[in-house]
Amino acid sequence: MAAVSPPPAAGPDEIPAYVLALEDKLATYLPASSVARVREAFRLGAAAHAGQTRRSGEPYITHPVAVAGILAELKLDVEAVIAAILHDTIEDTPVKRGDLEQRFGAEVADLVEGVTKLDKVQFRTAQEANAESFRKMLLAMARDLRVILIKLADRLHNMRTLDAMSRASRERIARETLDIYAPIAQRLGMNAFKAELQDLGFRALYPMRHRVLSQRIRQTYGSRRETVSRIEAAITARLGQMGIGARMVSRVKSPWSIYTKMRSEHKTFAQVLDVVGVRLVVAETMQCYIALGAVHALYKPVDARFKDFIAIPKANGYQSLHTTLFGPNGTPIEVQIRTEDMDLLAERGVAAHWTYKTEAAPANGAQARAREWLSNLLTQESRATSSLEFVENVKVDLFPDEVYLFTPKGDILALPRNATALDFAYAVHTRVGDHAVAARVDKKLVPLRTRLVSGQTVEVITAPSAVPSPNWLEFVVSAKARIAIRHFLKRLQHEDAIELGHRMLDRALDEIDSSLDAIPPPVLEAYLSENRLRRLEDLLSEIAMGNRMPQQVAQALTREQGELGLGRKPRRGEKILITGAERGVVTFGACCHPIPGDEVMGFLSAGKGVVVHQMACPNVPEFRRNPERWVPIDWDRNVQGEFRCALKIVVDNKPGVLATVAAAIAEAESNIENVEYQERDIHTAALLFTIEVRGRTHLAEVMRRVRRAGVVHALSRVVG
Question: What CATH number does residue 97 fall under?
Fold first, then answer.
């Protein structure tokens, strides 16, 4: 794709040469009436941007015309081309949406509005502003794919003309291009866009590394050119004997691809096998496999370097056969085999065959997969609690490394690299993931955290009583699984927060001889309205999460003056009982590791809820300085779960001691979470174990077993 190079500005009634060049491109696939509409759009855009210039000093209108030229090379429809010319008018000029709709129709106005930047929206941080802008861009893209095509073309032209920017701006834009826009282009199957965006971004961000790698690539290609030519000639001759016509294209891996491969796989340049390759383009799908047999008969393939993306296309619709051959003199050469249609889809992705697509005709493979991915964005957006979380989750799906897996019925699912059986369960359906308990991988029973590899057949085992656990977030990698788990846990957390907040407010009201039932409804409604709370449940959740003090709320609701706390002894109320299963609203202090049976107190921490500490915790005197945050709590009779506890064990300093102590702990049915050496001399060593126990009775059993180990000199529980 060549950039549109504008000559000096033309007069007011003269059509510039760069616009005439654009019209010549459009005339190859659009009727004259559509080309006339594009000229009308140029006149409006030129008038609207009159007096505006780019950093390079060129008239600003040259940029949107260049963006339209990039889309014309993709043969996009006239509405997209017009929207490209006018994509900055709503934001940067007096032109309004209504003006565009009146002159060019609602479709063009929608596209321009979808692409328009969101500078007027204010956010707390620049990071959040970027995330919000990205979120809205993706949602606009989900409604119409042409929005992102215009945005990508806009970014591509900006990258081509980046030299006019300051160094800091160049680096910021380049990093954003490599992190966001190039992966989106790849996810949409637009490899030509992706490759140029990556190359331009790499050159702007790391100019020296780009220069060195480019030089090495040129040297390598020069030294292998004769080898590649011999391979091409041999393959052409063999296919000619078989009656198969083929187009041969030499391919050189881009500097960015080699750089990322060297970094991610810790390889030197010499260890990257597919620097130089050959693309073999044939007429029909069956000929791809015949050609594969032919090249394997000519040259020995490199073991484990064959990939069939025709039978199992990539998530972005990409199809091709990949194999690496030992060429003459043992030089490794990658060969890609595909049809003409597959080659067009590989280069243009969702933009391929755009003008030939009608409402009745089915979309191509890349377009169908892109729409499926984009439709999931709307679900993810509705469940994410912030723009940053949404962007974090979406970026997981933007990177290309994938594994391809089979359902028991033979359907294929593509998941991110390192995906687990639980990711697979959520890919099948959210309800399957929520109730998953295990999986069968190639008929072998495995836990949900098992990492999957391409080609495996996975069957998910579910149970109606099973529900998502917080520790699931530690090993899932797909955005769909992460969002579904968080959504479920946040709903449960909200329910638990309401219940705990209710108990806390009841206790605070009881201390001043009142109750929630005694508060007149108008008083409660007025308090909620004054504090911008929609309903009572929101107030109770705020209390449980430590964002509002229950005593202060109680005083406000009863109009009682004065503070409860220092200087006043409140009436004794019942302690709030906890089970340890309160999700997200009760946590346990890492400073003292309280366990069931310990005498405990609660401290309200803003945003965290109630943090439980032992009464013997050395931090308790500090907590007494904030009596309004003190929560009287105790253990419920029915306490479930495992709780962390720290043990200091002094043992003989000799080989095998750690294994002996670990075995004793395991015999007592306790899990070791962490172990570290605290002190060490010639004769003894002090070890700090963090273990999980069910309560004080279980802890006593663990300590008895450890003492019997025969290598233990001293044993004590660590508090603080």
Answer: 1.10.3210.10
Which uninterrupted H or E stretch holds 441? strand 436-441
pTM greater than 0.70: no
Do residues 143 and 77 share a domain? yes
Helix (H, G, I), strand (E, B) or coil at 497: helix
Residues 75 and 161 in one domain: yes
pLDDT band, residue 356 (cuts 50/70/90): very low
Assess whether 521 and 455 both reside in one domain: no
pLDDT for residue 551: 83
Strands, sheet with 276-282, edge to edge from the N-terminal-most edge strand: 247-252, 276-282, 332-339, 321-326, 307-308
pLDDT digits (tens, 9 = 90+) for 632-642: 888 988 887 88
Residues 6+ apart with CB under 8 A from 382: none
Tell me the C-alpha distance between 47 and 49, whole Å.
6
Q: What is the pLDDT of residues 248-293, one digit of tens each?
A: 888 777 888 888 878 877 778 777 766 778 899 999 999 999 999 9
- Residue 37, pLDDT > 80, answer yes
Q: What letter represents residue 296's amino acid?
A: H
46 and 163 assigned to the same domain: yes
Residue 419 lies inside a defined structural domain of this protein: yes
What is the average pLDDT score of the chain? Answer: 81
Cα distance between residue 651 and residue 661, in whole Å: 9
pLDDT of 192 reads: 87
CA quadruple 685, 688, 692, 693: dihedral sign: positive
Residue-by-residue DSSP string for 271-338: G-TTSEEEEEEESSHHHHHHHHHHHHHHSPBPTT--EETTTS--TT----EEEEEE-GGG-EEEEEEE
- 635 in a structural domain: no
Residue 121 has what pLDDT? 35
Q: Which of 425, 458, 477 marks a domain boundary?
A: 477
The total domain count for the chain is: 5
One domain, residues 276 and 142: no
Active-site residue numbers? 91-92
Domain boundary at 434, 450, 477, which? 477
- DSSP strand pairing (332-339 vs 402-406): unpaired
Residues 197 and 305 in one domain: no
What percent of the chain has pLDDT above 90? 23
CATH of the domain at 664: 3.30.70.260
As given in the structure block, the two tokens for residue 62 are 């040259």
Residue numbers of the domain that contains 292 = 209-352
Type of residue found at 236: T
- Per-residue pLDDT tens over the stretch 562-596: 444 333 444 555 788 888 777 667 888 888 999 99
The partner residues of 645 in beta bridges, in order of sequence, read 691
